[in-house]
Amino acid sequence: MTYSDPDFGTITVTVNPRARRIIMRAEVDGLRVTAPRYATLSDVKNAIDKYREPLKLNQEKAKLHPHHTDEEIAKLRIMAKLQLPRRVAELAHLHGFKYQGVKIQSSRTRWGSCSARNSINLSLFLMQLPEHLIDYVILHELCHTVHHDHSNSFWALMMKVTDGKAMEWNNELKQYHTD
Ligand SMILES: [Zn+2]
Question: For the chain, how many structural domains are there in total?
Fold first, then answer.
């Protein structure tokens, strides 16, 4: 069922027999509520009132950074697994890098990382970047297989493999966020 709330917009309540408590999630256009079978509408309304202020904050955040649905993340993961390992292989071959393997992760805090054993981890959220920035992140991690730091030697290598564009692309990447 749905009803309207002056703060949140549309409140959509779904009954889930497996739910053990009332779960509320703020979305851009309203609240999604999952309730156990025994919960009444007034239970739901009381729960929303109790958490009204933090839910309002969450909704503000959702408006600033619309988050992905599970389905969108699943699609990004499929694309990432299809495309990123192949691109890493191409760029490694082109510039003569050796690495252990590629893992696709759902990290929101970093685009990529390179382990001490030269295994490369890439965030599925890379798939939302323009192609040259995906390459930039991959080249960054490949350069870490040679220099495991951000020393001058690391950046010199980065400049070499990006035709001098490393700094420009590094700055451009800062405009993007995983969500
Ligand atoms: Zn780095």
Answer: 2
How many whole angstroms from its chain centre is CA 28? Answer: 18
Distance, CA 57 to ligand 1 centroid (Å)? 33
Determine which helix (DSSP H) or strand (DSSP E) holds 19, and give its type and residue range: none
Share of residues in the chain with pLDDT > 90 (%):
77
In the reported structure, the alpha carbon of residue 174 is separated from the centroid of ligand 1 by a whole-number distance in angstroms of 13
Q: pTM here?
A: 0.65
Q: In this structure, are 43 and 126 located in the same domain?
A: no
Spatial separation of the C-alpha atoms in residues 14 and 150, rounded to whole Å = 50
The 10s digit of each residue's pLDDT in 80-115 is 999 999 999 999 999 999 999 999 998 888 999 999
Report CA(144)–ligand 1 centroid distance (Å).
Answer: 7
**How far does residue 141's CA lie from ligand 1's centre (Å)?**
6
DSSP string spanning 155-169? HHHHHHHTTT-HHHH
Structural domain range at position 115: 70-173
Q: How far apart are CA 90 and CA 2, in angstroms?
A: 51
